[in-house]
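Table S7 (text form). Paired inputs.
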Amino acid sequence: MVSVTVEFLGGLDVIVNKQRIHQVQIDEEGVDMKRLISYIADQMITNKNDVEVFLEDGSVRPGILTLINDTDWELEGGEGYLLEDKDVISFTSTLHGG
């Protein structure tokens, strides 16, 4: 089991009941970012029409900055990064309507 903090920032919280910070526990071993992204889409996004706000082609949509413990996820291995207890995963939308 892994327990992490997941943050939805930059207005992205609207897809998860307007709650910015979530404590997430996944009862599996070897949970990677790809699995967390799938968990968010399946379990946390309340209106399934909003999944496309977060995902494109099965991964985080371009324009959403993804950080693992304040470091760009690409530097940590992207979708292949294995989550550790107490990691903080932040998703920040850089896309703003106007």
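Next pair, protein 2 of 2.
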Amino acid sequence: MRPVTATTPARRTPRTVLVLVGCVAVLALVCLLSLAVGSKATSLPEVIDALTGRPDAYLATVLDARIERTLLALGVGAALALSGALMQGVTANPLADPGLLGINAGAAAAMVTASAFFGVATGSTASAWVALLGGGVAALVVHMIGTVGGGGASLVRLVLAGAVVAAVLTAYVQGLALSMPQHFDSYRFWVVGSLGDGGLDHLRSVAPFLVVGLVLALLSASGLNALALGSDTATGLGVNTLLLRVTALGAATLLCAAATAAVGPIAFVGLAVPHIVRALVGLDVRRQLLTCLLVGPIVLLGADIIGRVVLRPQELMVGVVTAFVGAPVLLLAVRRLGKRAA
């Protein structure tokens, strides 16, 4: 090996490593802010002292609740970001995400139905199964509508079918909530998307689904890189494209349904985060998925912190914040696609 001299440039640190280190640092800061911000603000020094020492009883109770909320946001944010990256990779459509393709709405409709008619509690293991079933059925319906008339499921058809299914299911959820007011309070915060009522119990109930979805997502990463070159090229490289699509879409459905069961449908995280990640680490799906595990929680926790601050001492639910932030991201993505098409 040649020594490094004045004429031999030192090896540069890979950009992905720098990005990951930066994301870890930002995530640590956001987690500390999440522990400090609430209806009553707590300074960062107080939080650090409480974590490293013995806080008073009140502060300990507050921090326990905020720690559970932060951990829940970490799991849900990572799941939604991974789900969106998988959907965009499989469909080769940068506008695809679980919400636009109906999975969010299907999981929400199933959960609301189970809660209203069968007394299934949100955040329970049973709710995760219900949300998974609803999300899977919605995804199947979207695919069937997208293939009507033959010729396969084009990207435009899938997006339009997802928008129709999501609109119908959202109207169903709203109608059910208005017609059964006695059940409305039990899920009105959940159906908008809120971390406020969640905790470690909700996270534990959906953890098996998150783990399975994560494993399937990582197993699909290399195949999605090949699929980005085209189905024919991927097949020529030895990739079973049908199995790959089923695995990746199954992982996306698992992750999205589990996140929805835990905290309710949260829009735009799965759409926005993959765009941010691609700008940071490029087109390698393996790097994207790894970075999504960090950027997703950063975005969701950041939105949750904003929701706690803007209406203090009241709280704006995180699903509302992500909708306000995500809508401009969607418009920018559509504008960029329009420029490319031109």
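The radius of gyration is 21 Å.
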